[in-house]
Amino acid sequence: MTGNTGTVRLAVVTVVRDDLPGLLATRASLRAQTIAAYDWFVADGASTDGTARWLARHGNEAVWWRSSPDRGLYDAMNTALDAIAERSPSCGPSCSHVLFLNAGDRLADDRVLERLYPILTASPDTGLFYGDAVEELPGGRLVVKPARSHHRALLGMFTHHQAMVYRLAALSNVRFDLRHTLAADYAFTVTVLKQGDPARGRREQAIIRRELLGLGRSANATLWGLQWLALTLRQTIPWLYAKYRFSPNERSFLS
Fold first, then answer.
1. What angle, 0 to 180 degrees and rounded to 10, lies between the N-to-C axes of helices 20-31 and 51-58?
2. What span, in angstroms and rounded, lies between the C-alpha atoms of 192 and 196?
3. What are phi and psi of 106, to 5 degrees?
4. Which residues does 80 contact at the CB level (< 8 Å), separation at least 6?
5. DSSP label at residue 72
6. C-alpha Rg value of the chain to the nearest Å
7. Cα–Cα distance measured from residue 34 to residue 231, given in angstroms and rounded to the nearest whole number
8. What residues pair up with 65 in beta bridges, in sequence order?
9. Are strands 64-67 and 38-44 parallel, antiparallel or unpaired?
10. Multiple choice CATH, 10-195, 3.30.1230.20, 3.40.50.11260, 3.90.550.10, 1.20.58.110
11. Are 157 and 181 in contact (CB under 8 A)?
12. Exposed (0-12), middle (13-18) or buried (19+): which is 65, by Cβ within 10 Å?
């Protein structure tokens, strides 16, 4: 099944170093998908196990690949993001979203993209999509690891990177910070979340209060701080937020 995915096209980024079996497993997972509206970008860190030779023989399966030394996983992911951004329109349809599926990572089944594309299409302005992940335990048993809400990002990553899809327009000025050797993906994701609608909504509210209600800068700053405090409380101590924010009466004139 190829399907008409409209303006949605996925860039799948695979980073690999000395893991040809893992690269082939990821390739097999992609090739099994019922929808093929994706472009594969492969960044190999100068492998010496045959990965580079395999890419040279099968390079036509990826719209872009390179095999050269890098500064690690996140540096290679940045290089692939730059390649996506610099891709010429003459090379084919432009990608709208990106999924990081590194060597050895696999999609849960062959219909993942078929289920994903309608979701991406329905929310074209959303910067980040995420869901549950499947983990393989020692011995090969597969278990589902449910995602936490992104509102609890203060507690750390809320799902695996394989279960996250980023809108490329939200990444125009975002790259992995190489100062972080283990948690650069967390910083990357939090940066994308900070660009989302809640902050923009608070800025718009401040403009409305200033222009329509006549509130000055100090009053607006105070209200902004209270909103930030309420959001932090909701993310870190949700039961306490609910106690003071919500009425115990289940009836509502608007429900």
1. 30
2. 7
3. -135, 150
4. 13, 15, 41, 42, 43, 64
5. S
6. 22
7. 41
8. 42
9. parallel
10. 3.90.550.10
11. no
12. buried
* Parallel/antiparallel/unpaired status of strands 38-44 and 10-16: parallel
Q: Helix 217-236 and helix 197-212: axis angle, to 10°?
A: 150
At residue 250, the pLDDT reads: 40
Q: Are 4 and 35 in contact (CB under 8 A)?
A: no
What is the predicted pLDDT for the residue at 254?
40
Secondary-structure breakdown of the chain: helix, strand, coil percentages, each rounded to the nearest 5: 45, 15, 40
DSSP state of 240: H
**C-alpha 231: how far from chain center:** 22
The span from the CA of 198 to the CA of 218, in Å, is 21
What pLDDT, on the 0 to 100 scale, is given for residue 163?
92
- The pair of structure tokens assigned to 129 is 């999509």
Q: Can you give the pTM of this predicted structure?
A: 0.75
**Domain ranges, ordered by start, for the chain:** 10-195, 198-245
Q: Tens digit of pLDDT for each residue in 45-88?
A: 999 999 999 999 998 899 999 999 999 999 999 999 999 998 85
